[in-house]
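CORE FACILITY INTAKE
Project code: CF-77B
Contact: R.S. (postdoc)
Sample description: multi-component assembly, two entities in total
Requested service: structural model of the whole complex
Turnaround: standard
Below are the sequence entries exactly as provided by the requester. Do not edit them.
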Amino acid sequence: MVNPMDRILLSGNEAVALGAFEAGVKVGAGYPGTPSTEILESLASYPGVYCEWSSNEKVALDVAIGAAYAGRRALAVMKHVGLNVAADSLFYAAYTGLGGGGLTIIVADDPGMHSSQNEQDTRHYARFAQVPMVEPSDSAEARDLVAQAFAISEQFDVPVLVRMSTRVSHSRAVVKVRGPAVAPGKRRPALADPLPVSDPHSRSAGDALTALTANPGKYVMVPGNARGRHPVVRERLADLGRWAESCGLNRVEPGGRALGVVTSGIAYQYARQVLPEASFLKLGMVWPLPAGLLRRFAAQVDRLLVVEELDPFLEENLRLLGLTTEGKRWFPAIGELSPAAVRRGAVQAGVLGEEPPEPVPLPSLPARPPVLCPGCGHRPIFYALRRLGAVVFGDIGCYTLGAMPPLSALHTCGCMGSGLGNLHGVAKAMEGSDGNGKAAAVTRGRPAAVIGDSTFYHAGLPALANLVYNGGGGLVIVADNSTTAMTGHQDHPGTGRTLAGEAAPRLDPAEAARGLGVKRVATVDPFAVDEFLAVARAFLTAGEPAVIVARHPCVLQSRSRRPPVRVLAERCNGCGLCLRLGCPPLSPDGDGVLLDSDLCTGCGLCVAICPRQALIAVTDGEGDSLHA
Amino acid sequence: MRDLNFMLAGVGGQGIILAGDILAEVGLRAGADVKKSEVHGMAQRGGGVTSQVRWGQRVYSPLAEPGRIDILIGFEVLEAVRNAHYLRQGGLAVVNRYRLAPPAVTAGEAAYPDEGDVEREFAARGADLRWMCPPSGRERLAVGVQLLGLVSALDPLREAFPPEAWLDALDRLIPPAHRELNRQAFQRGRAAGADVVPAREEG
């Protein structure tokens, strides 16, 4: 039985997955990263699609390129900074093309840095690599544009970028599908009937690969061949520019003549809401730009504004076309755009009348930054490193929160894997100077790196190989909670499970370190506080590469909870040592401490460090009143 | 259906995404265009989290502007008052009377706003503030659904949406194992809301 079209709510990410599935995608690969993570999780739940968490974005893109080389449709998924990692692969794929397979690369920007170390505008990569980019502005468009992206990829023999942003990825909006609803706990529509999957490829993978082997000039990018491909890349972009004029992805929404707005992505939604009288040129394809369409639109309006999020990408390119336009003069280039920011800009630009003052929040409310969870296995790592006085080079993950006061025990965070290289450079810079002058046992001021288990496989391995090869020293701690926690618990090479939930070989960071030639390697549960301190002290001062795998499962995934810790007020002298753990259940209470037993997981770290035994662990048998 | 903007504010881990999903589903089933914004990632680790749900004839932006939210649903007192400026004049605020000290308060560097300040802040914005008695134990897991139950019993939703509309959305979105807990939470909230309505009408 065929169900009627039904309206359901999908996040932008779920809509991308639906669009890719409907387009007959065969292979999806990516690395988790907010705000892109749910795309592959959703796609993996559809039948007939192979999806994997690759060890990093570059590997993911190479995997997807391979699948496209084999004549299939392939999807690579990453966040904006992931494309930095994968950029090398984007550029060669732009030269080789895919030979008939379809390659769509989803890149999710994070304006406002909800969960990122910077805000990059990925549109520059489209221009940089000379490949097309489409940009949806809501879930329904995301689903449609992904299908379009595959068609463009195959028609023009080119990888196609799809720019998502946090607010499109993580907003739910109406999408029409066949099938009743999203099943509880699922990230995709429940398919009452199989969707009509259009497999556009009658050619077998074998035929695709035969064609590939017959064409080294196109696929072997040695200088002599690449020189022949660069003109193809240029001509292809010019062809795409002509195609963009009438492709239907860019649409004019006529309104008043006084004001014309050129916009794309989520900025379109904000501008449409705030400027109901204006005419709009809404770009679904943001590179290459339809020069003729833009010129005609500009000629039809008295004043031309560009409303776009982050950089003045469209604005500058409109100027290169000789058009007079204003954009970043009125609308911010920093941070996430919002309807309020568009309204402020529009009022300043004089295209909207004065408004009553915008309501502002109550000043001086205490901030609520993210913190390590109660019971988190990263907390005892940073407790130990702070006691030892180490200078800690950090990385990207939940453990970055070790930088937050009161722990304040992580001192840099750059990008995935950067901490290990930083550590090596610092150690080399210290050689022969202050490092050597130090008594062997002094730990204060010595450098260490902390990297998560998923990050270790992502970018830590090459840096550790480098450290060993080049005679480096210093302590590397792999904060191993056996998951990719920050992005919502995705699997990785160390979890023993694949994205599809199947059993997989479980790699061990300790074995990897030994394999790379590290002599001092130990695996310690950081909640064994004294043991962990002793090993960290010895390794920090060893003067040779040393790796501790600090293994404790993520508390959010762990099923075993112990009863909350009990405070014996008569023993507490208010020294505040436990409060310096930054554990949410503990707060000062006059001369003592208060423990919120609803939040406490009974991990026992505070019990272990309290010098007066004023905090005591409760075993399961006792204290019935404590966990009613 | 009239256009309605909701905002949910609380702390990562309190179930804000699910409560917003239910709210969005109720609007969708009533025939509205719906958009909803969420926060994922780092902020979820105990940080302040908000979500907005917008029902309307045609909804463009998933975000409403400050001063244009009709109903603010506060999961925690500080996070509710932090977002009070999103409420329109005369809007409704339903706030779980639960306080969770952020790190600066725990460290003794800042004060948690007292209830008088919170009430004055909402009053200054002409808002109708309703406190909800915070659930404890296992019932905390369904605090968001309890808040929805309370909101469902108040204007402007009381007449337009019978409990079945909410319970239907809840059943669609919550796996069977957790349904009963959430259904009970909804009814608890709804009953509390039903109690306060006559009191307000008298006053």
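Facility notes:
- The longest helix of chain A spans residues 223-244.
- The radius of gyration of chain A is 27 Å.
Invoice: internal transfer
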